[in-house]
């Protein structure tokens, strides 16, 4: 699902000043409102997806992002997790293809916002960073038709091939990772059209790469470099839309089970906290056809909350019950944050964190990531 509308904040909102408490941040509702999208294309009908081309940019749409998360293990059982998202926002429709606009090397049809985060469980460390970069002068961008996405020295490269590379930093941590998708892209929603609101065009084109093998290095702040391996997840969306008026935020789950099952579910929330009927997900078994998850098939209940240093309060443990599409045994899990404090300290605050998945006996059966927005009032 990733952060529908955060890019609206980039188009017309400067990073806010800290208040007397040192806390900055916009509400999600502030980031989603008021921007003119006239002239941009909208996701209003199904389309044919083409890979690897669709790993590349779609400049006719206002909002686009490349979102990656992963859980990693070191040689002695060290536990790491990471989050990287490259957000692209079109500044005005048609600029990307205008030859006059490109007479200057510093012309900037897009603004890029990039979020990175790293969790080092054993060091008790979590931090996030944010960059805003215009794509003029080659400072940021996405090569066409497909290949590389970058902002300064942070980059995701090799998207045209079978192996990718990801390089980024968070404070004094440096991550250099090789990525190899282990399954084909999965189209979300209805054949890749993910409806988020009641009107035509209140949607995104959305697919996932739910299981990506990772190997590489993490250099800690203290200078030690560790070899790591693990699993990552990539989501890709592009659209020209935001949340509907009756939606206040969402709870998004990307779960990788040890038996090969992958599950995505986003619960859109109304202002009163109740689930919205447009909540959706995907059931992705290892050796069977993936299927749409409807909200009536999923029961999601927060069971524990934690207050972040900002003062925002988020659920950090959930009870999850899913009736598999097409039948089969009901699956029941407890989803638990690896660390309670995983809020992103960015212009729009949200919680983006690594989780463990436990069965009814409390035994670990998988890992994943959860994204939570719309909890600014605790």
Automatic annotation (TrEMBL):
Residues 64-240 form the AttH domain. Pfam families: CrtC (PF07143), Lipocalin_9 (PF17186). Keywords: Hydrolase. The keyword Hydrolase applies. Gene3D superfamilies: AttH-like domain. GO terms for molecular function: hydrolase activity. This is Hydrolase. It comes from Thioalkalivibrio versutus.
């Amino acid at each position: 699902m990733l952060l529908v509308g955060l890019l609206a904040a980039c188009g017309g909102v400067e990073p806010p000043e800290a208040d007397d408490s040192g806390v900055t941040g916009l509400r999600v509702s502030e980031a989603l409102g008021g921007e003119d999208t006239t002239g941009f294309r909208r996701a209003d009908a199904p389309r044919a997806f083409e890979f690897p081309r669709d790993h590349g940019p779609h400049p006719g749409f206002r909002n686009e992002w490349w979102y990656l998360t992963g859980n990693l293990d070191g040689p002695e059982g060290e536990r790491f997790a990471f989050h990287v998202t490259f957000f692209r926002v079109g500044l005005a429709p048609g600029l990307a293809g205008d030859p006059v606009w490109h007479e200057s090397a510093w012309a900037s049809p897009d603004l890029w916002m990039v979020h990175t985060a790293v969790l080092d469980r054993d060091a008790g460390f979590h931090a996030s960073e944010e960059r805003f970069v215009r794509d003029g002068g080659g400072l940021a961008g996405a090569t066409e038709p497909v290949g590389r996405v970058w902002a300064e020295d942070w980059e995701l490269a090799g998207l045209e091939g079978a192996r990718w590379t990801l390089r980024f930093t968070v404070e004094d941590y440096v991550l250099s990772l090789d990525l190899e998708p282990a399954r084909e892209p999965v189209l979300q929603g209805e054949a890749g059209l993910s409806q988020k609101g009641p009107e035509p065009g209140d949607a995104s084109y959305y697919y996932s790469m739910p299981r990506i093998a990772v190997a590489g290095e993490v250099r800690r702040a203290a200078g030690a470099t560790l070899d790591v391996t693990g699993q990552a997840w990539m989501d890709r969306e592009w659209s020209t839309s935001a949340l509907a008026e009756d939606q206040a935020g969402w709870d998004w789950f990307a779960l990788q089970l040890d038996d090969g099952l992958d599950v995505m579910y986003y619960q859109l929330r109304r202002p009163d906290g109740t689930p919205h009927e447009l909540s959706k997900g995907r059931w992705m078994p290892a050796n069977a056809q993936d299927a749409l998850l409807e909200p009536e098939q999923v029961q999601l209940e927060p069971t524990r909350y934690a207050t972040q240093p900002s003062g925002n309060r988020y659920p950090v443990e959930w009870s999850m019950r899913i009736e598999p599409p097409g039948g089969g045994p009901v699956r029941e899990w407890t989803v638990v944050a690896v660390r309670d404090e995983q809020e992103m300290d960015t212009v729009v605050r949200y919680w983006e964190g690594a989780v463990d998945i436990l069965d009814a006996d409390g035994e670990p059966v998988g890992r994943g990531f959860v994204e939570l927005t719309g909890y600014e009032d605790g």
